[in-house]
């Protein structure tokens, strides 16, 4: 997999990442198998997905402060693979922040991996439409949580609360979501968690009908949904794991250089550790140059930077 997609090697082996390369490879192999089973009209054999969920939980428990690397969809051919794995990872981060026990994290992670299986029953012309959906198309789109739940119910080896993630991840806290229009804590906790993970990853991923948002832009939209779209308690747990400039953000420094945020400094959120990518003249920096902004007095973040400043395809999203 990493020979086919060299962009995934952006993070060096010496850095602590939340999801190891081995787990990433297994995750995409397992999800490929599940997706092909659904497309063929067969029942799901969740063995591979269960193994991946176990590996994700183990890695998150062992390294709770490690960087979380979400794979950039530009490196792959199919949105479904990467989105499901990224959402599962985000769900587990939120679940851990909420203090959920390991058994709960496993069921949550499995639900995150399988949450969007219902979209495989929706026409690609609807999923990838560049423009507003018609009423009929939106009605069909809103059925994908039901389709997903029905698909997962075909397997007795998928826990009911994992299935409910597929059914409930588009419910909104104020009661205006779908498919059931549930409100507040009537929405199962796993559904409330996945709702945030799903939206954040979707916003920060390129789609046929729009380009990906920068992490800080996505954070503004997600936080605007507190009390309306999202459970305040769950959103607070999510924000506890994030920062103003999450790892993976591109930042413009006061001298005109461009850097990639590697990790936050918890005591100084505006002064993370960065990797310099472009110097003040806009020239690519070939040698690896890390700077801890907490230790530099004359260098600081002026604001977020656009990918267009790099003029290269981004590597893994790291948050």
Please describe the structure with a list of short key phrases separated by commas or semicolons.
single chain, 319 residues, alpha+beta, Hypothetical protein af1432, 2 domains, five-stranded antiparallel beta sheet, two-stranded antiparallel sheet, disordered N terminus, disordered C terminus
Give me the secondary-structure topology.
Elements: H1 21-39, H2 47-62, E1 69-70, H3 79-97, H4 102-114, H5 124-127, H6 135-141, H7 144-152, H8 160-168, H9 189-203, H10 215-223, H11 232-240, E2 250-253, E3 258-263, E4 273-278, E5 290-292, E6 301-304, E7 317-318
Antiparallel strand pairs: 1-7, 2-3, 2-6, 3-4, 4-5
Short description:
By secondary structure, this protein is an alpha+beta fold. The chain has eleven helices and seven strands. The strands form two sheets. A five-stranded antiparallel β-sheet has the order 5-4-3-2-6, with no helix packed on it. Strands 1-7 form a two-stranded antiparallel ribbon.
Describe this structure in words.
With 319 residues, this protein is of the alpha+beta class. It has two domains: 6-240, Hypothetical protein af1432 (Orthogonal Bundle); 250-318, no CATH class. Helix content is 40%, strand content 8%. The chain contains eleven helices and seven strands. The chain has a five-stranded antiparallel beta sheet, with no helix packed on it. The chain has a two-stranded antiparallel ribbon with strand order 1-7. Strand 2 and strand 3 (258-263) form a beta hairpin. It is globular and about 60 Å long. Mean pLDDT is 83; it is low at 1-16, 71-77 and 312-319.
């Amino acid at each position: 997999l990493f020979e086919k997609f060299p962009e995934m090697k952006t993070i060096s082996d010496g850095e602590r990442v939340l999801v190891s390369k081995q787990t990433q490879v297994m995750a995409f192999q397992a999800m490929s198998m599940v997706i092909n089973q659904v497309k063929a009209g067969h029942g799901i054999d969740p063995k591979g997905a269960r193994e991946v969920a176990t590996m994700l939980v183990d890695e998150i428990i062992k390294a709770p402060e490690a960087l979380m690397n979400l794979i950039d969809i530009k490196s792959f051919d199919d949105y479904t693979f990467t989105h499901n794995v990224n959402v599962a990872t985000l769900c587990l981060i939120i679940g851990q922040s909420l203090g959920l026990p390991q058994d709960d994290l496993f069921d949550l992670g499995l639900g995150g991996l399988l949450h969007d299986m219902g979209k495989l029953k929706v026409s690609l012309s609807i999923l990838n439409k560049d423009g507003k959906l018609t009423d009929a198309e939106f009605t069909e789109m809103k059925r994908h949580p039901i389709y997903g739940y029905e698909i997962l119910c075909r397997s007795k080896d998928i826990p009911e609360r994992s299935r409910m993630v597929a059914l409930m991840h588009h419910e909104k806290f104020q009661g205006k979501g779908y498919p059931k229009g549930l409100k507040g804590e009537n929405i199962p906790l796993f559904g409330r968690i996945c709702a945030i993970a799903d939206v954040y990853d979707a916003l920060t991923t390129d789609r046929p009908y729009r380009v990906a948002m920068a992490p800080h832009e996505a954070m503004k939209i997600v936080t605007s949904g507190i009390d309306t779209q999202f459970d305040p308690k769950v959103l607070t747990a999510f924000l506890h794991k994030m920062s103003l400039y999450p790892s993976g953000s591109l930042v413009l420094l006061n001298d005109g250089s461009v850097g990639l945020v590697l990790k936050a400094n918890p005591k100084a959120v505006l002064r993370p550790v960065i990797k310099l990518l472009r110097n003040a003249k806009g020239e690519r920096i070939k040698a690896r140059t890390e700077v801890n902004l907490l230790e530099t007095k004359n260098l600081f973040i002026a604001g977020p930077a656009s990918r267009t400043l790099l003029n290269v395809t981004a590597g893994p999203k790291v948050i």
